[in-house]
């Protein structure tokens, strides 16, 4: 342990990943793949680690005089208000996410509908080149708008958003991921992106949107526009914000799939790292609100007041018309489907990872290059969508078709395309539709022969490849729909191939194919199962869907991780896994403590604090009581950078080195420590400390968290990691085992538990069990 | 800290609840309500605390030389085998629970069917008194058998079993709750009890049965019958057993309700205290197996090979035929239904609690009194079921009835009872049926006028009261079915009353009524919602079911706790709540440390260990290293009673006080520490230590857990409780803050965190926030 004094100014060399200043964050965030950890003090350079500078979140409840004082002053009615507000927030999140979901759907259906109508009209007049120009032109315009929004306003809005939300709920606040600009771009970028005909979904973006809405609501209005309400400051802490964002993520899924229970389970199984029963209930309430909003609007729109938004709007693939009967050959077919689906799903993950690595190098060359990439992919998509249907032969319309054939509407089966009257082009029914309608067509039951095997094969290959190369370009892009699209096409293909021996409807095979792909890429189980059931309204398929999901997840897990985990890793977010790595058992907590430690006295000189804040990026400082305040040096508690800044701004200084707790309590209240949204907190530059105040003293006791979680230095690293992860800590104090030494050995943060850090220090432990 | 020596023999006075010897456990377990905590050393007697002697479970992973040695020796193929076995166990649990579920249903349907057929036949011959004698006689015989099984073989099998399973998964092993005798009685007692016409369900017992099966499988065969397999010893620890029992509980719900997803969610929301994603998946697999087994048998039985087990078998109330349309007046009606349902549900909890307290006093008077109580309730039930239908007037059969009317079959609507041809008795259709069939009749759709309002009212009152007075008698009795029965009758009644203004089918109202009662008593949300949907096969009701559940749970929470939590409390099981009580913030860890602490040296005299084991009931002892083994006294680790017994049995003693780790490692392996099922471990009496060995030394280092979780004595009790709960600890070491003191202040167990203990020590903190 080294006490801080001005002679020790070599701290700049130490770069703690936790501790980048926010001005460098943005610059570095855009190129996470190229950063190497510089760690000059410990003389170890970790090469190849994907490090991204981010803030950790404070989930721990601090216990200090200020907080206790504040609790004592809260009256019962205030606590009741607080609880009521929590539920009001859940209601607001549900309402707004539901409304955004409706808006998104209406906008996409109308824009894409207009585009498809225009194309179809030109096709009917046999103006094929003009039709292509109109189609590709519309796509290009929409794609460029989406890309421009992403590139210039909010780069963080690109991609799915689920990995970032997942990381946030694990305690990692990636830069500007929940900002209002991100929300804006996510909503409109997603609308333009989906309407532009890309093989992307609106589900991931909806989850991200829900989370952004929740985060903004939890931030208690906007200080910039003087829209704050004093009461909301009680919610300005990371714990309450985490709860709200969990609700938001669940609401997003509920709005995207119209699956309220599935939304809750998604939040539980995939998004959240910590869970408790009270939150389950609140999340359930939020998704119930979403379900009611959606139902209301769908009833409203069923009267035709929403333009081209009609039945094809909110995805809901009702397959309950098909009779579910199956016997042994069907089950064998389904098992085979699950095995191959799992392998294809994990291959999808592998390829997405490779493409993302390439794109991240391309994208960092600037906004123009980003947009150019989007334009290229858009052109390629348009060429595929318009060009490939020419490969299909025209099929005579079936006599017993339930819908009109050929069809010149916006959505639906049996597209006419270039075919003569009385015939339809099956590939066009898949390509020249929105993704939602294409899935509906693939899942349609009692239409065995509608799609040729060759057409299904072409569509499958095209969609599988387009899905892979589209994710990672600078537009908001969900992964669910591409995977469902490819999966349901694969399932229908398998169903056609097994037609001679299986009695199961190809529409049901299609559903199982989608399940197998989802299981193979996302690696969820219960939530996917419930989402699929809610989507298709057919509970009788439950055993088969479970079977397929189990098989495909098992197959996928043999090869690689789930796609969201992969992206979290790729982005370099320091995610804390639920289980410690096996080799951690062979290390002890002291082994991973690095760098010099800076501690403060219980009553510290203002100058020392300022220097420490300026010269290091540390976010937590141990406070040590020394004589005369105690008999021997002992650990009094832990102060956070953010708390110190508030304390210094309050200027409760004294001339002498004395306890001045009351003075501090009079000047500052707990509410002053309310944590602002990321990047908006008090900064060192905001302080205005006079020269003469540098030599004054400030009492840290009132703000020090007197109950930090500690581990003895000889605690096995695995058990320390369990403690850190289960309690959602930001800092963990390592204390000495033997007596007569300074009362603290070091502080561990989540970065110290990252495999890259540990294996950098001890490369040989990797192969120990 | 006091070192143990023979001059300190006053330990007998100290009664630590954690530490009752097993011989007193049984005696005291049967009267949990009357025990007062005797705590003479600390001079505090806690009056009125309901204390039940139980074992705590060891979920913590020990880290010591032996374990590390063992890990090093395991080869990859062994780890693979271990994982494979886990899945094999899940498969076996699913299969056996499914089979037991089927067996249970077939048995109940046949026994109850025979009884009802006999009664109906005598009724048709107008031999009304004989019919009653036959009916009541059958009931009485079955009830007495169930009660005798419970009273003489396994008292732990009485009741639902869900509270005990919930407590087990929280770390509390109540005596013989998962024994094989309990399993046997639970299966047959439940069959007899349900067939005897009691207002009890088979759902709680199924959950308990699933858990028992899982526990027995996890125990690795039977030592008594030499059916052990060496490999299974790897599963002989509380962590793996907890996982298996979670799977078992989920399988139980899946088998009882044919609701695989609902089963997983039940285990997640209600049963389990800790959860992780890997377990979610395994549980999902188990319930999928159950679903497949059930489906297979139902197909088999549909050919008529299962006797009277037919459509009425496994409960499945398909209401998807009813059209779900609702508007504002319906929603208002539903809200009102939810509010009143929630209040009635919490009143149910209140009354069950009162009745249980009375019964527990009656039941402790011996087996004969227990059986007498069962006989009385059985007679009362028979009188109600047979007598009350006479109050109903005969109703002419409707012309458009889809089933035969009047009906003289075992199950079904439109029972003829005493009515003339062409008429039916609506109350008899409810009373003289199995509970499952009565629910099916209540939930039947498109049959608005079938039941008179007065009949519904009579049935509701009777079932509500019978349900309350039946729970707690000495038979296995589930709570789900009584609540669903009363709730669906209540819902149908409300539906009839709102008929003029509401368009919703009364069958759907009935479902919502059941939901409101379930929400009001059980206080679950997502799992109930999914179970109800899987039961009724109608996803379109989802928003309304969610709404009702939310309202009724909110209403119920205003008055009291959920019924299972209430029973856990009543049984005096030291359940660790997820959140610390507010007043714990005002105490520190040192405040609740009580009693003298016994510590061992790193190399300790055999005699001292024997004395400590004999004279105290402590289960964990800190090991302190002293000079010459270290520079100053320091905490080396923690040993458990069970480990010490194994170590002493191994007799790795030495004449001198020297480190002898290798000697110990040669004599004992990690597998010797495999934990047997509750009550089956090594006992002090099994040791055979010679007089001369008392003065020899034994090295505790190889078995001491060197990484126990510790808290500093000044840590706030609230945060210590969070640590204890989240990590599932059994012992937590409290270490001193200042230097120069002995290295450990005390040990906290789950009992030290119980409100009774804390409020006994500090009654005044209760009112602090």
Automatic annotation (TrEMBL), chains A, B:
CDD domains: CBS_pair_voltage-gated_CLC_euk_bac (cd04591), ClC_6_like (cd03685). It holds the Pfam family CBS. It is found in: Membrane. InterPro entries: CBS_dom (IPR000644), CBS_dom_sf (IPR046342), Cl-channel/antiporter (IPR051280), Cl-channel_core (IPR014743), Cl_channel_pln (IPR002251), ClC (IPR001807). Residues 704-767 form the CBS domain. Keywords: CBS domain, Chloride, Chloride channel, Ion channel, Ion transport, Membrane, Repeat, Transmembrane, Transmembrane helix, Transport, Voltage-gated channel. The chain crosses the membrane at residues 79-100, 131-154, 174-200, 244-268, 274-294, 331-351, 371-392, 456-485, 539-556. Its main location: membrane. It is a multi-pass membrane protein. The keyword Transport applies. It comes from the Eukaryota. The keyword Coiled coil does not apply. GO terms for molecular function: voltage-gated chloride channel activity. GO terms for cellular component: chloride channel complex; plant-type vacuole membrane. Belongs to the chloride channel (TC 2.A.49) family. This is Chloride channel protein. It comes from Gossypium darwinii (Darwin's cotton).
């Amino acid at each position: 342990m080294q006490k801080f004094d001005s002679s020790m100014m070599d701290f700049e060399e130490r770069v703690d990943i936790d501790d980048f200043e926010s001005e460098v964050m943005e610059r570095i965030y855009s190129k996470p793949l190229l950063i190497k950890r510089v760690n000059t003090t410990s003389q170890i350079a970790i090469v190849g680690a994907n490090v991204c500078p981010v803030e950790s979140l404070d989930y721990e409840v601090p216990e200090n005089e200020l907080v206790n004082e504040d609790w004592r002053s809260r009256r019962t009615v205030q606590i009741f208000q607080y609880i009521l507000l929590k539920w009001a927030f859940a209601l607001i999140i549900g309402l707004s996410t539901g409304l955004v979901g409706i808006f998104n759907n209406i906008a996409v259906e109308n824009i894409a509908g207009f585009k498809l109508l225009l194309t179809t009209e030109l096709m009917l007049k046999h103006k094929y080149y003009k039709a292509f120009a109109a189609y590709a032109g519309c796509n290009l315009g929409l794609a460029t708008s989406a890309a421009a929004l992403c590139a210039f306003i909010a780069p963080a809005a690109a991609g799915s958003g689920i990995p970032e939300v997942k990381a946030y709920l694990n305690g990692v606040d990636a830069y500007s991921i929940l900002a209002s600009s991100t929300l804006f771009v996510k909503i409109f970028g997603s609308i333009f992106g989906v309407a532009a005909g890309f093989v992307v979904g609106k589900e991931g973006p909806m989850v991200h949107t829900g989370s952004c809405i929740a985060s903004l609501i939890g931030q208690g209005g906007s200080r910039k526009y003087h829209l704050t309400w004093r009461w909301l400051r009680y919610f300005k802490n990371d714990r309450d914000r985490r709860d709200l964002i969990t609700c938001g993520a669940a609401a997003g899924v509920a709005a995207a799939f119209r699956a309220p229970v599935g939304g809750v389970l998604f939040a539980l199984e995939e998004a959240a790292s910590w869970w408790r029963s009270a939150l389950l209930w609140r999340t359930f309430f939020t998704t119930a609100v979403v379900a009611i909003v959606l139902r209301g609007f769908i009833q409203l729109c069923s009267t035709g007041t929403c333009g081209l938004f009609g039945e094809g709007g909110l995805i809901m693939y009702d397959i309950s018309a098909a009779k579910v009967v199956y016997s042994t050959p069907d089950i064998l077919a389904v098992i085979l489907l699950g095995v191959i689906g799992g392998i294809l799903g994990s291959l999808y993950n592998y390829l997405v990872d490779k493409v993302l690595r390439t794109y991240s190098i391309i994208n960092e060359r600037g906004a123009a290059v980003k947009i150019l990439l989007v334009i290229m992919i858009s052109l390629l998509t348009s060429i595929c969508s318009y060009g490939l249907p020419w490969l299909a032969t025209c099929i005579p319309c079936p006599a017993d078709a339930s819908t009109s054939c050929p069809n010149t509407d916006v959505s639906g089966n049996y597209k006419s395309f270039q075919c003569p009257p009385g015939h339809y082009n099956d590939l066009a029914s898949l390509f020249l539709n929105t993704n939602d309608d294409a899935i509906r067509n693939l899942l349609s039951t009692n239409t065995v022969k509608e799609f040729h095997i060759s057409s299904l094969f072409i569509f499958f290959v095209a969609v599988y490849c387009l899905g892979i190369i589209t994710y990672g370009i600078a537009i908001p892009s969900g992964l669910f729909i591409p995977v469902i699209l490819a999966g349901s096409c694969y399932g229908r293909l398998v169903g056609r191939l097994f037609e001679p021996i299986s009695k199961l409807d190809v529409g049901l095979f299609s559903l199982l194919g989608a399940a197998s792909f989802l299981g193979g890429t996302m690696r969820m189980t219960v939530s996917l199962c419930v989402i699929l059931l809610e989507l298709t309204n057919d509970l009788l398929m439950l055993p088969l869907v479970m079977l397929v999901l189990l098989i495909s997840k098992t197959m996928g897990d043999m090869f690689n991780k789930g796609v969201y985990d992969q992206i979290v890793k790729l982005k370099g977010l320091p995610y804390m896994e639920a289980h410690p790595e096996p080799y951690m058992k062979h290390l002890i907590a002291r082994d991973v403590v690095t760098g010099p430690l800076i501690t403060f006295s219980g009553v510290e000189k203002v100058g020392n604090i300022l220097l420490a804040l300026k010269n290091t990026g540390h976010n937590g400082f141990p406070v040590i009581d020394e004589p005369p305040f105690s008999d021997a040096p002992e650990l009094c508690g832990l102060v956070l950078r953010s708390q110190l800044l508030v304390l210094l701004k309050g200027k409760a200084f004294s001339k002498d080195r004395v306890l001045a707790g009351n003075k501090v309590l009079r000047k500052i209240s707990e509410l002053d420590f309310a944590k602002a949204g990321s990047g908006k907190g008090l900064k060192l530059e905001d302080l205005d400390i006079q020269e003469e105040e540098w030599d004054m003293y400030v009492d840290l006791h009132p703000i020090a968290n007197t109950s930090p979680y500690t581990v003895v230095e000889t605690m096995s690293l695995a058990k320390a990691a369990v403690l850190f992860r289960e309690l959602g800590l930001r800092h963990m104090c390592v204390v000495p085992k033997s007596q007569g030494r300074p009362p603290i050995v070091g502080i561990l943060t989540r970065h110290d538990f990252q495999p890259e850090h540990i294996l950098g220090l001890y490369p040989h432990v990797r192969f120990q069990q």
